[in-house]
Amino acid sequence: MTTTDEILKRLRLDPEWAAQYADHLVATGRALPSCEQQDYRVPLALRATVLALPSDTGGDDYISWSSCPLPPNHRGPHYACLRHLGADQVAWIKWLGPLSTVVVLTDCPHSPEPDDACPLFAGHHGPCPVVSPGPAGRPLPPW
After folding, report:
1. How far is CA 46 from CA 41, 66, 89, 120, 129, in A?
2. Distance of alpha carbon 7 from alpha carbon 15, whole angstroms
3. What is the pTM of this model?
């Protein structure tokens, strides 16, 4: 059985698998499609700022690369998770065109289903997407 921690680690380390997993979740109705915009840059100064933020996650000293998880065709800026800081705090990059900044946001406290946690930040627009691996014991796709 695959644990949530194993899934999260693989999502961070294997972008191709993460894309296939996201497609699988949408195709099976366990997730909503997302914007998937990825046209941001993290300049060196912003990288240094993100890595200097205190973290209680036990040596989380890297920046994740992800796409905007907001609903397709949303209005306003895009967001992408850069680094988990622990205590329900995440460093996100917020961008619109060539303009970007780093913001630290609290995790969304809502849950789309009883055993799922919303992967977005508090106050996000649109419904909470479902990203859980499914009921315990249910195998994940082999990719």
Report:
1. 9, 16, 17, 21, 28
2. 12
3. 0.66
